[in-house]
UniProtKB/TrEMBL annotation:
It comes from Apostasia shenzhenica. This is Ectonucleotide pyrophosphatase/phosphodiesterase family member 3. Pfam families: Phosphodiest. It comes from the Eukaryota. GO terms for cellular component: vacuole. The chain crosses the membrane at residues 38-63.
Length: 484
């Protein structure tokens, strides 16, 4: 898909340098791995956990200190019958969820351009006030498959867009649909297992045939980035014209924009504004089609994205060859670079020693931008990264600061555009979450949450039994109205 195509990723990059002064979101001033930030993060997690637990237990919601707006009171106790319940379905016999992903839709993009359709869903639905938090690495395939399975990448197996199996040496690429790579139970399989139709229009992993999911041609077209966006929406709308019991209860729909523009131009370019206008028109087309069929209020629409985007201009490079006075890294040790460095040294070479020597070189002051990269044994990564529990993850992982790019060798050509894959808790890596439907309170603002929660949210709305996953059991009830 788009992020992997070198022509999309790098074409024409130099001409369009993002202007940092019009940066959309405040850029964190210190390293994302600083103890202060980790501490703040931990406090946030504790607050979130306490808040969810308390709301479940006591029937009201506590707020994280950063949330300035007042939320609805939810979780009515049985005695309080005046709390709002979900709106009953008017026309459809059962709930239907349409999940729409806009690749690389950085949180806040909808504020860059008039977006009446997205705003309408926000006003009459629920929005994650500070965006949707991706999983690490903040890349397209790991994140789309985390949203589909509720699993962190080590447990669903898609630990990068491209990676090698450590035992066979075989490489996974985004075109590989062999089920051996794709672990876990994605939403479309959960739906199919329980006897309903599901439809996927280009979601990562959806073409993989697994158990009851056979990727039926009429509900699972093969990926083709040239299919116009309008055609995708119209195909999805067409599913609602099927006999009632054939209408898919789950529809997952993917668009490559605005990631394509983000890579070429960076997040602050007028081309992004144009792409956002187009995204909004696509949302409008979907909403209109549902309205024409009289089912807009029955259908749950969830808009989200897989990750954000950070500008990469000003020659923000780290070249591994500059480490040669400390350690000669073989080119074949490097499993991935750019925004996520992963290293698998050949057998016989001590991983600890590689980490020690690389970090010594990086902190020496003699490697360009060396202070922007830190390498870890994967087990020593901060726990919030959840990036250790799979043999597919190489033993050494380098985390580079926002906007920086790791290359093996110095290249003559400088690129200037946008990238992602960085620390998933950076604001710039967040995407958005907007949901509209019978079980979402009007005008509700919820705190940011991580996208592994999406799986339980969707299975709860659909009244299906979900597979074990890394989402929290309490999350759906903390944001949904009680079933009517
Ligand atoms: C919001 O929802 C209400 C009640 O369903 C409806 O009357 C109103 O038209 C909706 N507003 C928008 C902007 O869609
Ligand atoms: C992809 O879609 C385009 C536009 O509809 C079409 O012309 C092309 O033949 C398709 N490619 C494949 C491989 O199906
Ligand atoms: C994530 O879920 C998988 C499957 O249930 C489980 O094996 C794994 O331990 C979980 N990991 C975390 C960090 O919760």
């Amino acid at each position: 898909m788009a992020p992997l195509s070198p022509s999309v990723r790098f074409a024409g990059g130099e001409r369009h340098c993002a202007n940092p002064s019009v940066s959309l979101l405040a850029k964190p001033s210190s390293s994302s791995l600083s103890p202060t930030k980790s501490l703040i993060f931990c406090i946030f997690v504790v607050i979130s956990c306490v808040s969810s637990a308390a709301s479940a237990a006591f029937g009201f919601l506590l707020f994280s200190p950063s949330s300035s707006r007042v939320l609805h009171h939810r979780f009515p106790s049985p005695s309080n019958s005046r709390e709002p319940l979900a709106r009953p379905l008017a026309k459809l016999p059962r709930p239907v969820v349409v999940v729409v992903s806009f690749d690389g839709f950085r949180f806040g993009y909808h504020l860059k351009a008039p977006s009446p359709n997205i705003r309408r869903l926000i006003a009459n639905g629920t929005e994650a006030e500070d965006g949707l938090i991706p999983v690490f690495p903040s890349l397209t395939f790991p994140n789309h498959y985390s949203m589909a399975t509720g699993l962190f990448p080590p447990y669903h197996g898609i630990i990068n867009n491209i990676f090698a199996d450590p035992y066979s040496g075989e490489w996974f690429t985004t075109k590989n649909h062999d089920p051996k790579w794709w672990l876990g139970e994605p939403l479309w399989l959960t739906v199919a297992r329980q006897g309903y139709n599901a439809a996927t229009y280009f979601w990562a992993g959806s073409e993989v045939k697994k158990d009851s999911w056979i990727c039926p041609p009429k509900f699972c077209p093969k990926y083709n980035s040239s299919i116009p966006f309008e055609e995708r929406v119209d195909a999805v709308l067409g599913y609602f014209d099927l006999p009632t019991d054939e209408i898919p209860v789950l529809i997952m729909l993917y668009f490559e924009d605005p990631d394509s523009q983000g890579h070429v131009y960076g997040p602050d370019h007028p081309e992004i504004t144009k792409a956002v206008v187009r995204v909004d028109q696509i949302v409008g087309r979907l909403v209109r089609g549902l309205e024409e069929r009289g089912i807009f209020d029955d259908v749950t629409i969830i808009l989200l994205g897989d990750h954000g985007m950070a500008g990469t201009c000003d020659e923000k490079y780290v070249f591994l060859e500059e480490l040669s006075p400390w350690i000669e890294i073989g080119p074949d040790w490097v499993m991935s670079a750019d925004s996520l460095l992963t290293i698998r040294p050949p057998s016989g070479i001590s991983w600890e020693e590689v980490v020690m020597k690389v970090n010594k070189g990086l902190s020496s002051g003699n490697v360009g931008n060396g202070d922007k990269l830190t390498v870890f044994l994967k087990e020593d990564l901060p726990e919030q990264f959840q990036y250790a529990g799979s043999d597919r993850i190489p033993p050494i992982v380098g985390v580079v600061e926002e906007g920086y790019t790791v290359k093996y060798k110095r290249e003559k050509r400088y690129e200037c555009g946008g990238s992602h894959g960085y620390d998933n808790f950076l604001l710039s890596m967040r995407s958005f979450f907007v949901a509209h439907g019978p079980r979402f309170p009007q005008g509700q603002k919820i705190p940011s949450f991580q996208n592994v929660e999406i799986y339980n949210l969707v299975t709860t709305i659909l009244n299906l039994k979900g597979a074990p996953n890394n989402g929290s059991v309490s999350f759906p009830n903390s944001v949904l109205l009680q079933d009517a």
